[in-house]
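PROTEIN DESIGN WORKSHEET
SECTION A - STRUCTURE
LENGTH: 145
TOKENS:
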């Protein structure tokens, strides 16, 4: 198992309306067109994740869990690893409901995208003053015999 903690902030333009992806970015500013972004000013991008996390995430039988913590609100997104994950992007982390991969992809086959997040959580993410904590867990799934 590998665990990563990412600290980020909210932004007034966070809409969390994208139906197939969510994104965490190191960028400080975004426009309303970036409707997949759920946090800005992150202290980690894809390249910043640990070697152990990246190795586990490249296995197709790895479950990747993203816990989003804003104040007292906790939400989980659960996805899978994939052999094509490269983690080369310095700026962003993207979770996808589908199976597409690129240098920003954190997980595939996620059970939620930005659109599916609790609306109170999404509303709280619209404040520049809000701190958003992400706990990222990569763990190989156990085969049951």
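SECTION B - SEQUENCE
RESIDUE ASSIGNMENT:
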């Amino acid at each position: 198992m590998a665990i990563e903690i990412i600290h980020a902030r909210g932004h007034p333009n966070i809409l969390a309306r994208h139906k197939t992806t969510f994104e965490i970015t190191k960028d400080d500013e975004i426009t309303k067109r970036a409707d997949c972004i759920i946090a800005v000013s992150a202290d980690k991008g894809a390249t910043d994740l640990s070697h152990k996390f990246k190795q586990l995430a490249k296995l197709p039988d790895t479950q990747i869990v993203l816990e989003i913590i804003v104040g007292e609100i906790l939400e989980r997104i659960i996805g899978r690893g994939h052999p094509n994950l490269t983690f080369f992007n310095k700026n962003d982390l993207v979770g996808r409901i589908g199976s597409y991969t690129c240098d920003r992809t954190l997980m595939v086959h996620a059970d939620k995208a930005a659109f599916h997040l609790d609306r109170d959580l999404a509303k709280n993410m619209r404040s520049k003053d809000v701190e958003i904590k992400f706990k990222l867990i990569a763990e190989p799934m156990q085969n049951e015999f």
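SECTION C - NOTES
The beta strands are 2-9, 21-25, 37-39, 62-70, 73-80, 92-96, 105-107, 131-140.
The chain is about 10% helix and 35% strand.
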